[in-house]
Amino acid sequence: KMAAGEAAGRYRSTMSKSKDPSGLLISVIRTLSTSDDVEDRETEKGRLEEAYEKCDRDLDELIVQHYTELTTAIRTYQSITERITNSRNKIKQVKENLLSCKMLLHCKRDELRKLWIEGIEHKHVLNLLDEIENIKQVPQKLEQCMASKHYLNATDMLVSAVDSLEGPLLQVEGLSDLRLELHSKKMNMHLVLIDELHRHLYIKSTNRVGQRNKEKGRISSLVKDASSVPLMDVTNLSTPRKFLETSQFGTPGSSSMRETSLLEIKEDVELDPEENSTVFMGILIKGLAKLKKIPETVKAIQDRLEQELKQIVKRSTTQVADNGYQRGENLSQENQPR
User: pTM to 2 decimals?
Assistant: First the structure.
């Protein structure tokens, strides 16, 4: 018993000195190595066995005393272990699912990009088809605009259609005939506009003077003394130069304001385009500018200037002669040969 007590005491003292359990083993090995004979070794062995048996008994007693707490601790430990194991498995499964989702998302992204590109292509094709459908209706609409003398709308429509046919729709073989037709109309459009410009510039403006002259002639027929009739006043006639130089559009000589006044001219499809001759001539000039035919227009006006002025003199002479003859007839009927 004394030997067992000493061994147990030595064991406890060794454990208290060092928390490492290997310290006891080292102490035992040192004791055995310093002993001289087998009897001392056997004695040491017996002491160790007794110490271990006492530890086992003490352990059994402690287990019996704390059985409930130990059982609860073991069960809790098992539950915690199971939960940790389940969590690890779930985390592993989540990782696998995430990798799978990542692969699927890569595939979906490529598919979505492909669909997006196809959507853009289809949208572009639909826009081209709509443009083709609108351009096919251009000849009919152009004919209507030309018949109603809405030349600015006709010019915009024609220029836009030709630009599209010679630009984005150049590779469409089915539009070759329409392309040639509209291009030919665009090349000859300025001739129509120049003729209209000359008609308003030389003929319609002088017709207004003739109308005023006729009105004054009717007034003079009611007056006994024809010499009291005032001379024809043409200072208030509206001309393109006066239209551009009026105060509402800017000061005379201001080129920037003249350009602005021309840009502000718009065509109302609901009204008669020739109602205001000055605005109509501005519309014609704007259409010629869009056709880029201003140099040809200036040349045509210069070439036809002398001829047109001679025609004005001829028409005016005829009107004056007719009015004079009519006035003479009226006076002769009143027995006034003068």
Answer: 0.48
Alpha carbon distance 284, 196 (integer Å): 8
- The H or E element spanning position 216 is helix 205-221
CA atoms within 13 A on the CB side of 86: 6
DSSP letters for 153-191: HHHHHHHHHHHHHTTTTTT-GGGHHHHHHHHHHHHHHHH
- How far apart CA 321 and CA 17 sit, in angstroms, is 150
Q: What is the dihedral of CA 275, 278, 280, 284, to 10 degrees?
A: 170
What backbone phi and psi angles, to 5 degrees, belong to 92?
-65, -40
Burial of 321 from C-beta contacts in 10 A (0-12 / 13-18 / 19+) = exposed
Provide the 10 A C-beta neighbour count for residue 217.
18
Instruction: Report residue 163 as tokens.
Output: 């630009």
Q: 90-138: per-residue pLDDT in tens?
A: 999 999 999 999 998 888 888 889 999 999 999 998 988 888 888 888 8
Q: What are phi and psi of 269, to 5 degrees?
A: -70, -15
